[in-house]
Specification:
214 residues, mainly alpha, 84% helix, 0% strand
Amino acid sequence: MIGLIYKDIMALKKQLSILIVFIFVYGGLCLVGAFDFSILGALIAVFGLTVPVSSVTLDEAARWDRYAAATPAGRRGVVAGKYLFTLLIIFLGCAVALGLMVILSLVGLTKALPLDLVWTALACAGLTLAIDAVILPFLLKYGAEKARIISMITFVLIFGGAVLFTGLAKDGIPLPQPPAWLLTVSPVLFGLVCIGGFVISYFISQGIYAKKEF
């Protein structure tokens, strides 16, 4: 399984390097006031959504999935490798973006507190984890092209809904207020839902891939 993850890293090392450069470029744009620093957190989603899709696209082009399923790792190893690779990519994007945001905050280049930036990065990582939990079963069942459409729809619904509610709140439109206890436990609940959804998605993908015909 480690070999499968290493294969994905080597196959996509150029794209990973480009995405890391993008984070630093946007960091520079934030310095000149072109963007808010929170956009660096949104780039975590770019990492977590585009890289797994690219991985499956390359596998399909090389017909790697048929070969990998016949290796000792088997079909279960292929699925586990994709999920672990996705987790690794989300962690990498979160670490780079968060590290850059915190450094810029500590040197006084943004008024945002380091703790607020940490929560922003973790929230974006959690949302990315939730979106990947939705698209990975489609990705493994139908391939990259159809799954890319699913990922775009899911991304727009989640982030578009967040932007909509934020805009309504800024406009002073009254929104339903959740109970105080729910607000208190919401970070923990959000994390559990994202992680739990990813775990459930993993077992769904195992069932799908076990029955897939190549």
